[in-house]
Amino acid sequence: MIEISEYYTTNRGLLNFEYDKIEVNSRPAWIKILDKKEKIKFLKVNTTSGRFFYTSFIDNYYLVEDASNEEVSIFYNEICEIYNKKMQSHKIIGDFIVNNLNKNNLPKQIPILSICSGSGIEMKKVIDGGYQNITLLDVSKNMLNIAKKDSRFKDCKFIISDFLQANFKKMKYDILICSMGIHYFNGDSLNKFLIKCKHILSKTGEFHIININIPLIELERYFRTEKIKNYEIEDENGKKTKVLYYIGKIKVSD
Ligand SMILES: C[S@@+](CC[C@H](N)C(=O)[O-])C[C@H]1O[C@@H](n2cnc3c(N)ncnc32)[C@H](O)[C@@H]1O
Asked: Which tens digits make up the pLDDT trace of 71-110?
């Protein structure tokens, strides 16, 4: 049994909601508010195993704070269709990627790995740009399934896994892309993420990160910054969001 004890905007009172019943960590990974009230940013939720915070993510869905990879996967499995529909504005990220790749006249067959690819919104443009050797990795099976159903991805490889657990054997990629995913790695997991990226990136390869914030200090432990540029994404309602585009290469001293 769970109950929402507080929520933050000006509103108080009972809320109708649904929640994830898998409860891998004895708490729901997500909560969906059914009332159409004003936008609530945070929920404080009492459960039999403790009190947890949830943050508004998309539509009326809330993700538990400090979600584990499993909880992130449960959450994205639930919201995959909504995400894919609402985030089509991320297609433009694909244009940014293609422009950056084309500048170096890279062969179209170079192996590219998209980490946290989700349903592959931005990667469609990379395929349209002629790049042929693409792998999509995501922890959410349902997000990848959306991509799998799209014929454009028919020649792509798919890896359903937490990135930190994925076994690449001796595989090296010339391009790593992480669009809107690096914020899922913090502290120790960010360090592990960067070490793993360095390990699977070819010596002359490029690491492309697109996000609202880029963890530059941590990146510079392992990568030499080649480029950082500001871009803007406009969503379906005309709301503009600034994103940073980072390109790094493995530090020569390493
Ligand atoms: C905000 S979406 C980004 C999707 C897409 N790249 C885009 O730009 O729209 C973040 C994605 O990261 C995935 N993700 C989060 N943590 C992950 C992890 N540890 N390993 C692999 N994928 C992860 C989620 O499942 C989700 O599909």
From this structure: 999 999 999 999 999 999 999 999 999 999 999 899 999 9
Q: Give domain status of residue 183, yes or no.
A: yes
Going by alpha carbons, the residue nearest to atom 4 of ligand 1 is: 118
Nearest atom in ligand 1 to 69's CA: 19
CATH code for the domain in which residue 209 is found: 3.40.50.150
The domain tally of the chain equals 2
- Against a cut of 0.90, is the pTM above it? yes
Q: Could you tell me the distance, in angstroms and rounded to a whole number, from the CA of residue 217 to the centre of ligand 1?
A: 22
- In this structure, the answer to whether residues 165 and 227 fall within a common structural domain is yes
Q: Which among 63, 121, 184, 210 is the best mutation to test ligand 1's pocket, defined by most ligand atoms within 8 Å of the CB?
A: 184
Report the relative pairing of strands 240-250 and 17-19 from DSSP bridges: unpaired
Instruction: Calculate the average pLDDT of the chain.
Output: 93
Residue 67's identity, in one-letter code, is: A
Residues 158 and 212 in one domain: yes
- Write out the two tokens for 114: 């998209």
- The lowest-confidence range among 45-54, 68-77, 92-101, 202-211 is 45-54
Residues in the ligand 1 pocket, defined by CB under 6 Å: 69, 72, 76, 87, 90, 93, 116-118, 121-122, 138-140, 143, 162-163, 179-181, 184
Give the structural domain span for 61.
Answer: 2-67
What is the b/e burial string over 28-59, where b = at least 16 CB atoms within 10 angstroms of the residue's CB? bbbbbbeeeeeebeebebeeeeeebebebeee
pLDDT at position 10 is 44
Same domain, 58 and 166: no
